[in-house]
Amino acid sequence: MNAQDSAPQLLMSPPDFFEVAYTINPWMNPEQWSLDAKRLRRDAAWAWSTLRSTYESLGARVIVKPAAKGWPDLVFTANCAVVLDGKAILARYLNEERAGEEEHGHRMFDQLKARGEIDAIFRTPDGVYFEGAGDAIFDAGRRLMWMGFGQRSSRCAHHTVEQVFDIRTVSLELVSPRYYHLDTAFCLLSGGDIVYHPAAFTDEGRELIQALAGDKLIEAPAEDAENLGVNSVCIGRDVVLCHCSPALRAQLEGRGYRVHVVPLGSFNRSGGAAYCLTLRLDNLFKGRAPAGQRLAA
Ligand code: ARG
To answer: What angle do CA 115, 120, 126 make, to 5 degrees?
Structure first.
C-alpha cells in the first residue's frame, strides 16, 4: 500500500458548465445570475480550484468527474451517489432539471468500478428519490447513517441504504426549503462532533440529534447556516468551509479543529458549498470485500 491508498479519496467535478439556469431551491435566481454571469463563472472556476488545492494540501486525493454541457449542477458531486465499503448507491433526482445527471453518474461509476476504485453499484427502486451523500451522512463513530428526507430524497430510501450497507439509519425530516439537503444544515466532524442548524428540523428531529450527539453537538450560529457554512468537509482535524463566524471558529478551535475558509459565493447562488462539491469515496464501515468475493450488482 502506498501513501496515496490511505489518503482520503474525493470525487469532484469542475464547474466548466456551471451556472444558475433554473430554480429548484430558494437560493437559485437565474435572472440575478445572468446580470453578472461572466464574473460569477470566473469566480466559480477560481473557487473550485482553490477548494481542490486546499483538499490536496490536506493530503486528499481528488478524482475528477468530467463536466457535461447542459448539466450545470453536475458540479455538486455529493449528490451523485453515496459510497461506503466500496459500494455506491447512485442518485435518483427528484427534479427533472437534474435527472439527466443520473446517466453521467452511472458512466462515471462504471469507470470507477473498472479501475477498482469501487466494487459494486446499486440504485434505489423506481420512484424512490435519493440525492446521494447530500441526504446520507455516514457516522463511523455512532455506526449509523444519518438520512434527510422531506425536500428531495424519499423517506423510504433508507431501506436501500440499510440493505446495501447493512447499517442502521436515522431519518431526519427537513422542513425548510432553504435547507433542502441534510448536508445544508448538518455536518459530521471527524471527532464525532456534529454542527447543525436547528431550524431545518422538526422538534422530533432536533431531539433525536440532541440525544445521539450528547455533548458533541455544536449549534451553528444563524449567520453560518445562512451562508452555507454548515456545508463543510472535515479531513482529519481540518474543517474546510465557505463561511465561519468568529463564534463558530471559537467552537471548532476549542474542540481541536483547524478552520480553512474557502469563499464559494458563486456556488452559494445555487444553494451549494464545500460538502456539496465533494463526494467521499473511501468511507469504511465493515470494510471492502476481498477482490474475489465482490458483488456484481
Ligand atoms: N442547485 C443544486 C440543487 O438544488 C445544489 C445542490 C447542492 N448539493 C448539496 N449536496 N446540497 O440540487
So the answer is: 130
